[in-house]
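Project outcomes to date are best conveyed with an example. Our students and postdoctoral researchers have been running inverse folding experiments weekly, and each run begins with a structure described purely in C-alpha coordinates. The record below, which covers 312 residues, was selected by the lab manager from last quarter's runs and is presented without edits.
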Protein backbone atom coordinates (compact mmCIF):
# COMPACT_ATOMS: atom_id res chain seq x y z
CA UNK A 1 0.00 0.00 0.00
CA UNK A 2 1.25 3.45 -0.95
CA UNK A 3 0.23 6.71 0.69
CA UNK A 4 1.08 10.41 0.51
CA UNK A 5 0.85 12.55 3.65
CA UNK A 6 1.25 16.26 4.14
CA UNK A 7 1.99 17.90 7.46
CA UNK A 8 3.58 20.90 9.07
CA UNK A 9 7.27 20.02 9.07
CA UNK A 10 9.20 16.84 8.39
CA UNK A 11 8.84 15.40 11.90
CA UNK A 12 5.04 15.72 11.87
CA UNK A 13 4.78 14.22 8.36
CA UNK A 14 7.00 11.32 9.39
CA UNK A 15 4.90 10.75 12.53
CA UNK A 16 1.75 10.67 10.36
CA UNK A 17 3.34 8.09 8.05
CA UNK A 18 4.36 5.92 10.99
CA UNK A 19 0.85 6.25 12.51
CA UNK A 20 -0.94 5.35 9.25
CA UNK A 21 1.44 2.77 7.79
CA UNK A 22 3.31 1.52 10.84
CA UNK A 23 7.02 1.37 11.67
CA UNK A 24 7.79 -0.79 8.62
CA UNK A 25 6.85 2.01 6.20
CA UNK A 26 9.39 2.71 3.48
CA UNK A 27 9.86 6.38 2.61
CA UNK A 28 9.78 6.77 -1.17
CA UNK A 29 10.27 10.52 -1.37
CA UNK A 30 9.79 13.84 0.36
CA UNK A 31 9.24 17.36 -0.91
CA UNK A 32 8.60 20.74 0.61
CA UNK A 33 5.52 22.51 -0.65
CA UNK A 34 6.70 25.82 -2.08
CA UNK A 35 5.47 28.88 -0.24
CA UNK A 36 4.31 26.91 2.81
CA UNK A 37 6.03 25.12 5.66
CA UNK A 38 4.30 21.91 4.68
CA UNK A 39 6.20 18.77 3.87
CA UNK A 40 4.85 15.94 1.75
CA UNK A 41 6.05 12.38 2.28
CA UNK A 42 5.30 9.53 -0.07
CA UNK A 43 5.58 6.16 1.66
CA UNK A 44 4.81 2.53 1.10
CA UNK A 45 4.36 -0.44 3.35
CA UNK A 46 5.12 -4.01 2.38
CA UNK A 47 7.30 -5.39 -0.37
CA UNK A 48 10.99 -4.85 -1.03
CA UNK A 49 12.23 -1.33 -1.74
CA UNK A 50 12.23 -0.86 -5.51
CA UNK A 51 15.42 -0.73 -7.55
CA UNK A 52 14.58 2.90 -8.31
CA UNK A 53 14.42 3.85 -4.61
CA UNK A 54 17.70 2.13 -3.88
CA UNK A 55 19.22 3.68 -6.99
CA UNK A 56 19.06 7.21 -5.52
CA UNK A 57 21.26 6.36 -2.55
CA UNK A 58 23.52 4.08 -4.52
CA UNK A 59 24.12 6.67 -7.25
CA UNK A 60 25.06 9.25 -4.64
CA UNK A 61 27.65 6.88 -3.16
CA UNK A 62 29.03 5.99 -6.59
CA UNK A 63 29.25 9.69 -7.50
CA UNK A 64 31.30 10.22 -4.32
CA UNK A 65 33.74 7.61 -5.61
CA UNK A 66 32.60 4.54 -3.67
CA UNK A 67 33.20 1.43 -5.83
CA UNK A 68 29.96 0.15 -7.42
CA UNK A 69 29.81 -3.18 -5.61
CA UNK A 70 30.55 -1.55 -2.24
CA UNK A 71 27.88 1.11 -2.94
CA UNK A 72 25.33 -1.62 -3.61
CA UNK A 73 26.19 -3.48 -0.40
CA UNK A 74 26.20 -0.28 1.65
CA UNK A 75 22.85 0.86 0.20
CA UNK A 76 21.13 -2.39 1.17
CA UNK A 77 22.71 -2.22 4.62
CA UNK A 78 21.60 1.42 5.04
CA UNK A 79 17.98 0.51 4.22
CA UNK A 80 18.13 -2.36 6.69
CA UNK A 81 19.71 -0.24 9.43
CA UNK A 82 17.36 2.68 8.80
CA UNK A 83 14.28 0.49 8.52
CA UNK A 84 13.31 2.31 5.30
CA UNK A 85 14.79 3.92 2.20
CA UNK A 86 15.92 7.29 3.60
CA UNK A 87 14.65 10.32 1.65
CA UNK A 88 18.22 11.50 1.10
CA UNK A 89 21.71 10.32 1.82
CA UNK A 90 22.01 13.04 4.43
CA UNK A 91 18.99 11.64 6.24
CA UNK A 92 20.76 8.30 6.16
CA UNK A 93 23.87 9.52 7.94
CA UNK A 94 23.25 7.76 11.23
CA UNK A 95 22.37 4.52 9.46
CA UNK A 96 25.45 4.87 7.24
CA UNK A 97 27.61 5.46 10.34
CA UNK A 98 26.33 2.22 11.89
CA UNK A 99 26.91 0.37 8.61
CA UNK A 100 30.45 1.71 8.19
CA UNK A 101 31.29 0.89 11.82
CA UNK A 102 30.54 -2.71 10.87
CA UNK A 103 31.92 -2.77 7.31
CA UNK A 104 35.10 -0.73 7.75
CA UNK A 105 37.98 -1.12 10.21
CA UNK A 106 39.17 1.75 12.41
CA UNK A 107 42.16 1.07 14.61
CA UNK A 108 41.76 4.02 16.97
CA UNK A 109 44.60 6.27 18.15
CA UNK A 110 48.20 5.10 18.45
CA UNK A 111 48.73 3.45 21.79
CA UNK A 112 51.69 2.51 23.97
CA UNK A 113 52.92 -0.32 21.74
CA UNK A 114 54.59 -0.61 19.37
CA UNK A 115 56.87 2.23 20.35
CA UNK A 116 58.00 3.05 16.81
CA UNK A 117 55.72 4.35 14.06
CA UNK A 118 56.77 5.19 10.51
CA UNK A 119 54.77 7.25 8.03
CA UNK A 120 55.27 6.31 4.38
CA UNK A 121 53.55 7.30 1.14
CA UNK A 122 53.86 9.15 -2.17
CA UNK A 123 55.59 12.53 -2.47
CA UNK A 124 53.94 15.58 -0.98
CA UNK A 125 50.97 13.82 0.64
CA UNK A 126 51.68 15.38 4.03
CA UNK A 127 53.86 12.79 5.80
CA UNK A 128 56.19 15.24 7.55
CA UNK A 129 53.33 17.56 8.53
CA UNK A 130 51.36 14.61 9.94
CA UNK A 131 54.40 13.45 11.95
CA UNK A 132 54.65 16.97 13.39
CA UNK A 133 50.95 16.88 14.34
CA UNK A 134 51.26 13.44 15.96
CA UNK A 135 54.45 14.44 17.77
CA UNK A 136 53.04 17.73 19.07
CA UNK A 137 49.86 16.07 20.33
CA UNK A 138 51.70 13.18 21.97
CA UNK A 139 54.34 15.41 23.53
CA UNK A 140 52.51 18.62 24.44
CA UNK A 141 48.99 17.28 25.07
CA UNK A 142 49.56 13.73 26.32
CA UNK A 143 52.90 14.46 27.99
CA UNK A 144 54.62 11.55 26.29
CA UNK A 145 58.34 11.34 25.75
CA UNK A 146 58.56 11.62 21.95
CA UNK A 147 61.51 11.32 19.57
CA UNK A 148 61.77 11.70 15.79
CA UNK A 149 63.85 9.89 13.20
CA UNK A 150 64.39 11.21 9.71
CA UNK A 151 64.90 8.52 7.08
CA UNK A 152 64.50 11.23 4.44
CA UNK A 153 68.08 12.02 3.49
CA UNK A 154 67.42 11.42 -0.14
CA UNK A 155 66.64 15.09 -0.74
CA UNK A 156 68.55 18.15 0.34
CA UNK A 157 66.40 19.83 2.95
CA UNK A 158 64.38 16.69 3.65
CA UNK A 159 65.63 16.64 7.23
CA UNK A 160 65.44 20.40 7.77
CA UNK A 161 61.64 20.56 7.76
CA UNK A 162 61.44 17.83 10.42
CA UNK A 163 64.27 19.37 12.46
CA UNK A 164 62.36 22.64 12.62
CA UNK A 165 59.33 20.86 14.06
CA UNK A 166 61.54 18.94 16.53
CA UNK A 167 62.98 22.24 17.76
CA UNK A 168 59.58 23.90 18.00
CA UNK A 169 58.14 21.04 20.03
CA UNK A 170 61.38 20.61 21.97
CA UNK A 171 62.04 16.93 21.25
CA UNK A 172 65.11 15.03 19.95
CA UNK A 173 65.62 14.06 16.31
CA UNK A 174 68.00 11.52 14.81
CA UNK A 175 69.06 10.86 11.21
CA UNK A 176 69.34 7.45 9.55
CA UNK A 177 69.62 6.05 6.06
CA UNK A 178 69.61 2.27 6.38
CA UNK A 179 68.52 -0.48 8.77
CA UNK A 180 71.73 -0.27 10.84
CA UNK A 181 71.46 3.50 11.06
CA UNK A 182 67.83 3.15 12.06
CA UNK A 183 68.77 0.72 14.86
CA UNK A 184 71.42 3.16 16.06
CA UNK A 185 68.94 6.05 16.01
CA UNK A 186 66.34 4.01 17.91
CA UNK A 187 68.94 3.07 20.54
CA UNK A 188 69.81 6.75 21.00
CA UNK A 189 66.11 7.41 21.53
CA UNK A 190 65.79 4.58 24.07
CA UNK A 191 64.40 7.02 26.64
CA UNK A 192 61.45 7.89 24.37
CA UNK A 193 58.17 6.00 24.70
CA UNK A 194 57.08 7.05 21.20
CA UNK A 195 59.35 7.37 18.17
CA UNK A 196 57.97 8.69 14.89
CA UNK A 197 59.92 7.94 11.71
CA UNK A 198 59.59 10.27 8.71
CA UNK A 199 60.42 8.84 5.31
CA UNK A 200 61.15 10.28 1.87
CA UNK A 201 58.27 10.41 -0.56
CA UNK A 202 59.02 8.50 -3.74
CA UNK A 203 57.24 8.18 -7.03
CA UNK A 204 55.09 5.01 -7.12
CA UNK A 205 57.09 4.09 -10.24
CA UNK A 206 60.33 3.94 -8.28
CA UNK A 207 59.64 0.46 -6.98
CA UNK A 208 63.32 -0.22 -6.23
CA UNK A 209 63.49 2.70 -3.79
CA UNK A 210 60.17 1.69 -2.21
CA UNK A 211 61.34 -1.89 -1.75
CA UNK A 212 64.57 -0.67 -0.19
CA UNK A 213 62.58 1.48 2.24
CA UNK A 214 60.36 -1.51 3.09
CA UNK A 215 63.43 -3.66 3.77
CA UNK A 216 64.97 -0.95 5.96
CA UNK A 217 61.82 -0.64 8.06
CA UNK A 218 61.35 -4.40 8.38
CA UNK A 219 65.09 -4.91 8.96
CA UNK A 220 65.15 -2.84 12.13
CA UNK A 221 65.51 -4.81 15.38
CA UNK A 222 62.47 -3.17 16.87
CA UNK A 223 58.99 -3.74 15.42
CA UNK A 224 57.82 -0.70 13.46
CA UNK A 225 54.16 0.06 12.78
CA UNK A 226 53.89 1.46 9.26
CA UNK A 227 51.18 4.01 8.39
CA UNK A 228 50.59 4.54 4.65
CA UNK A 229 49.56 8.13 3.85
CA UNK A 230 47.59 9.00 0.73
CA UNK A 231 45.60 12.05 -0.36
CA UNK A 232 41.83 11.66 -0.24
CA UNK A 233 41.28 13.31 -3.62
CA UNK A 234 43.00 10.50 -5.51
CA UNK A 235 40.41 8.14 -6.96
CA UNK A 236 39.84 5.05 -9.05
CA UNK A 237 42.70 3.49 -10.96
CA UNK A 238 45.27 5.95 -9.74
CA UNK A 239 44.34 5.15 -6.13
CA UNK A 240 44.35 1.39 -6.75
CA UNK A 241 47.74 1.53 -8.51
CA UNK A 242 49.27 3.64 -5.72
CA UNK A 243 47.96 1.24 -3.08
CA UNK A 244 49.14 -1.87 -4.95
CA UNK A 245 52.71 -0.63 -5.27
CA UNK A 246 52.99 0.75 -1.73
CA UNK A 247 51.27 -2.17 -0.01
CA UNK A 248 53.49 -4.69 -1.83
CA UNK A 249 56.73 -2.87 -1.01
CA UNK A 250 56.00 -1.49 2.45
CA UNK A 251 53.41 -3.87 3.97
CA UNK A 252 51.68 -1.09 5.93
CA UNK A 253 49.64 -1.76 9.08
CA UNK A 254 47.45 1.36 8.88
CA UNK A 255 45.98 3.70 6.26
CA UNK A 256 46.28 7.44 6.83
CA UNK A 257 44.13 9.62 4.57
CA UNK A 258 45.36 13.21 4.21
CA UNK A 259 44.00 16.50 2.87
CA UNK A 260 40.34 15.60 3.44
CA UNK A 261 39.78 19.37 3.27
CA UNK A 262 40.96 19.50 -0.35
CA UNK A 263 38.89 16.59 -1.68
CA UNK A 264 35.56 17.30 -3.39
CA UNK A 265 34.44 13.69 -2.98
CA UNK A 266 35.42 11.28 -0.24
CA UNK A 267 34.48 7.89 -1.67
CA UNK A 268 38.22 7.20 -1.86
CA UNK A 269 38.12 6.65 1.91
CA UNK A 270 35.88 3.63 1.37
CA UNK A 271 37.58 2.59 -1.88
CA UNK A 272 41.08 2.57 -0.37
CA UNK A 273 40.05 0.28 2.44
CA UNK A 274 37.99 -2.00 0.23
CA UNK A 275 41.04 -2.31 -2.04
CA UNK A 276 43.77 -2.67 0.58
CA UNK A 277 41.89 -4.26 3.50
CA UNK A 278 44.00 -2.34 6.03
CA UNK A 279 42.58 -0.52 9.11
CA UNK A 280 42.50 3.27 9.28
CA UNK A 281 44.54 5.16 11.83
CA UNK A 282 44.21 8.89 11.25
CA UNK A 283 42.70 11.50 8.93
CA UNK A 284 44.22 14.93 8.32
CA UNK A 285 42.01 17.89 7.54
CA UNK A 286 44.25 20.89 6.90
CA UNK A 287 47.69 22.48 7.17
CA UNK A 288 47.52 23.62 10.79
CA UNK A 289 49.92 21.86 13.15
CA UNK A 290 48.82 20.26 15.43
CA UNK A 291 45.07 20.96 15.07
CA UNK A 292 44.21 19.41 11.72
CA UNK A 293 44.53 15.76 12.71
CA UNK A 294 41.83 13.37 13.88
CA UNK A 295 41.42 9.72 14.70
CA UNK A 296 39.70 8.15 11.68
CA UNK A 297 36.09 7.19 12.34
CA UNK A 298 33.00 5.77 10.65
CA UNK A 299 31.03 8.88 11.68
CA UNK A 300 33.46 11.13 9.81
CA UNK A 301 33.38 8.98 6.65
CA UNK A 302 29.58 8.79 6.77
CA UNK A 303 29.29 12.56 7.25
CA UNK A 304 31.59 13.32 4.33
CA UNK A 305 29.79 10.88 2.03
CA UNK A 306 26.52 12.56 2.99
CA UNK A 307 27.80 15.93 1.87
CA UNK A 308 29.01 17.47 5.15
CA UNK A 309 31.90 19.92 5.00
CA UNK A 310 35.20 18.91 6.62
CA UNK A 311 35.06 21.87 9.00
CA UNK A 312 31.31 21.71 9.77
N1 LIG B 1 45.19 21.17 2.72
C1 LIG B 1 46.01 20.37 3.39
N2 LIG B 1 47.33 20.46 3.21
C2 LIG B 1 48.14 19.62 3.90
C3 LIG B 1 47.63 18.65 4.79
N3 LIG B 1 48.68 17.96 5.30
C4 LIG B 1 49.79 18.51 4.76
N4 LIG B 1 49.47 19.51 3.90
C5 LIG B 1 50.37 20.35 3.09
O1 LIG B 1 50.92 19.56 2.07
C6 LIG B 1 52.23 20.05 1.74
C7 LIG B 1 53.23 18.90 1.76
O2 LIG B 1 53.33 18.45 3.11
P1 LIG B 1 54.57 17.60 3.62
O3 LIG B 1 54.27 17.23 5.03
O4 LIG B 1 55.85 18.29 3.34
O5 LIG B 1 54.43 16.33 2.67
P2 LIG B 1 55.40 15.06 2.60
O6 LIG B 1 54.57 13.88 2.33
O7 LIG B 1 56.28 15.03 3.79
O8 LIG B 1 56.25 15.43 1.31
P3 LIG B 1 57.61 14.73 0.81
O9 LIG B 1 58.48 14.55 2.02
O10 LIG B 1 58.14 15.72 -0.16
O11 LIG B 1 57.23 13.47 0.16
C8 LIG B 1 52.52 21.14 2.73
O12 LIG B 1 52.25 22.38 2.13
C9 LIG B 1 51.55 20.87 3.87
O13 LIG B 1 51.20 22.04 4.60
C10 LIG B 1 46.20 18.56 4.96
O14 LIG B 1 45.65 17.73 5.70
N5 LIG B 1 45.44 19.43 4.23
MG1 LIG C 1 58.36 15.01 3.99
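After processing, the design step wrote out the following sequence:
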Amino acid sequence: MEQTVRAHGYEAALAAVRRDLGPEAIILGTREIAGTREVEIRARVGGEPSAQDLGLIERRLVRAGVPTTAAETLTRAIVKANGAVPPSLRAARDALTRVLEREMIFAGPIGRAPRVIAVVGPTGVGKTTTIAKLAANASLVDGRNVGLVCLDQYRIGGAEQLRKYAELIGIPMELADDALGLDRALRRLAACDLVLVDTAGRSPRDTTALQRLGQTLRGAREAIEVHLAFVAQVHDRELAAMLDVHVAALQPHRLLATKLDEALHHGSLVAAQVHAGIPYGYFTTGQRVPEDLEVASARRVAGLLCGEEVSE
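The chain has three domains: 1-47, 51-106+297-312, 116-295. The chain has a mean pLDDT of 91. The training component of this project remains on track.
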